[in-house]
Amino acid sequence: MTVRLDFFWTTPALRDPTHSVPRGQGRNYAGSHQRAWLWGRHAIQETLAAARWPVLELFTSEILATDVLQSLRQTAARLAVPLHEVSSARLEQLCRQPDHQGVAARMGAFPLESAGDLLVAVHEAARTTAAPLFVLLDRIQDPWNFGAILRCCDAVRASGVVIGATSQSAVTPHVARASSGAVNHLRIFQTSDLVEATSLFRQGGFRIAAASEKSSEQFWNTRLSGPLLLLIGSEAVGVAPELLACSDVQAAIPMQGSVTSLNAAVAAGILLYECRRQSGMSSAEDRRAHG
């Protein structure tokens, strides 16, 4: 999966990061800008510190505090990231965000791991972790939902997240912000065949549990302990039938109000903590189990 950056070079004004263009011009590139730009002091500092997601260029403006600017200069020099100092107005034009906090970064493609990496990770987790927990996301298309799910996965120290290659939100700056930086700390695997991915887990000794509002089994009565792969389905139709067929159990979250289902990220959070509760692992124990 790649993030298109060609839009950045489509006009002379955008080729020169210090060149100003009248407000309103280049609006057709807003969607692409949002995919390629990360903004905000804390988001960028954490991304640079993790040194995982490639930062192609860094832009700062005069509203940054002197100590923050100096720190960013040092980090950019250490990582060989070009740094440009521009006006606050120009920075807003570049990243299309008024809340940039004086800093924005043009990002490269997020380093997703492959199906081959997943195979190794599954066997390693089963060998070294008391109750390894992976999450497979089936066509989560909303970036805010995707980011919120990743935040939940990091909160319970999940061993990894598996996503498909189609009909799935990419890891974008919006996803990163919704995840509160969790994208910098989680292993995210991409595969072209989610069904085949479930077989890797089964061969590794994992049970497979699917979230399904149609199940008659309530999640607190469902065994969600031990090595587990949790399937979370799309916002519109849930887990695909072919993936449900791969599951050992299907669990529903009971609804007592007028609506019939929960937001995918909320459902994921509830189920992930139930998985951890059933495994009897406190946060401290889980950290020790992960070394």
How would you describe this protein?
The chain is of the alpha/beta class. Helices cover 39% and strands 15% of the residues. Strands 7-6-5-9-8-10 form a 6-stranded parallel beta sheet, with helices on both faces. It is elongated.
Strands, helices and their partners?
Layout: H1 12-15, H2 30-36, E1 37-39, H3 41-50, E2 55-60, H4 66-79, E3 83-85, H5 88-95, E4 103-107, H6 115-128, E5 133-137, H7 143-155, E6 160-164, H8 173-178, E7 188-191, H9 194-203, E8 207-211, E9 228-232, H10 241-244, E10 249-251, H11 264-279, H12 283-289
Parallel strand pairs: 2-3, 5-6, 5-9, 6-7, 8-9, 8-10
Antiparallel strand pairs: 1-4, 2-4
Helix pairs in contact: 3-4, 7-11
